[in-house]
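If you are new to this repository, start here. Below is one unmodified record pulled from the training split, so you can see the exact layout before writing a loader.
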Amino acid sequence: MIIVASRLRAGVRVGESAGQRRPLPRPASWSIGKLGVLDVAAALGLSAVEMAVGVGALHHTGPPISLAAAVGTLFMVCPVAWRRPWPLGATAVIAVATAANVIIFGTMVRCGVALPAAFLVAFAVGARCERGKAAAGLVLCAIGVVIEGGFDPRIGWPGLTTVLPVLVAFFAAGTLVRARSRTAAELRRQSAELRRQRERTARLAVAADREQLTADLEQTLHAQLSDIATAAATGLDRLPADEDAARQVMASIERDGRSALGQMRELVGSLAAPGESALKNPQPTLAALPALLATATTAATRLTIEGSQAVLPSGLDLAGYRIVEHLLATVEDSPEAAVDVRLVFTAQTLELHVSGPRSSGTEFRAALAAAAERARLHGGSVRHRLDGRSCLATARLPLISGHA
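And here is the target side for that same chain:
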């Protein structure tokens, strides 16, 4: 397997040249499956603190805690690990585990690990749940905090007047983060729509200019050819009697013909300007994918190439680039997202894999349809698979076929 420009030890993204180096994804976006690395680390840290208290390695000022009670408290802490993918489930586990812990072990000091866990889960509920589910999650968190605080000698029932507002503050901070993320996503969507609208307007303007130039060309040629035809007829009438007059007519025909040819060249040159520009800027190929990944999305991108790279026909090379361009629109355009692009060369096919968080809105289906249509022109196909919020799209293009 070949990793294009892979310099992970140097801290750059895969698939970018030295002049286009960009930082790796931030630790906040690292994950183990669907679980965030930092969330798992927080759950393990809180669990380690509670176990250290249970075995006597870490002393506290309250009554002693048995090892069994410390193990039971872990069920109140572990939900922190899955607070992002399943925030509502995490709140339910905390509420049930807290009630069971109090029933089994009674009054004991748990606030050192239980309250931070409840606060982190409340923040995730506010940041990731819709209004109804967010309210239910906040109620479950509040139930867990009330039960824990009421039977914790360090907090007690009077202390809940301080703890509950802190819980609500974490929840409110999460809702603010959610609102900001939705606003940013909406702004990105509107910016993309405005960009597409500008491109459509520019194409319409070019088409209108071409229509006008075509009409001018037709009118000019019609007038010039009419004059030439009239002059030719006059010259033919005078040839037997007046050769000098005939020569003057023929000279005027030559002048008019050259003038018409010059005007036609000027107008045709104006019509051909976009084509000339296209010749100066050749169509992109798969070799330009690093530049595409650097500009087409704000997500953290990684490009991997497997197999021996074959020399592709220009049409197939361009089709591969356009398919990846379309498939990038199926994944989320967000700095927090991670997108993998993988090219697999085999003896018979070229496979293009794009995976990442699924994009929202109607662009997802439209982008898949555009990629499938492009692949179909070369005898290929596009398939996709959804796994929760993640999407894996795969395009297969035959290297040896009538189309290619």
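Two things worth knowing about this chain: The CA atoms of residues 211 and 245 lie 41 Å apart. The first helix runs from residue 37 to 54.
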